[in-house]
Amino acid sequence: MKDRSLVKIDIPAALEFLPPARLAISGLANQANFSVQEIQEIKDAFSDACRFALQNAYSQEETNNKLSVKCHVSKEELKICIEHEDINICIKRKRKK
To answer: Phi then psi for 10, rounded to 5 degrees?
Structure first.
């Protein structure tokens, strides 16, 4: 059985679409047995990274209207990568033992 799994989510590049993506991230973290406090920290880091990507993308034109999120889930950690235009941010959280 494979230890890692990958979940991809593409959402419109606008702040109002972050809550459903946060909910998906929360569900993945919950399924990976992170604590409630860890899940909140992951969601907060995810939101901050998305806001940064949306506000600091190189192009101010609406040429790329999507935010791509890739989540790698394993027994030990959750890694979330956010891509928008020229911005690529990864968050890695290891589960506390």
So the answer is: -115, 125
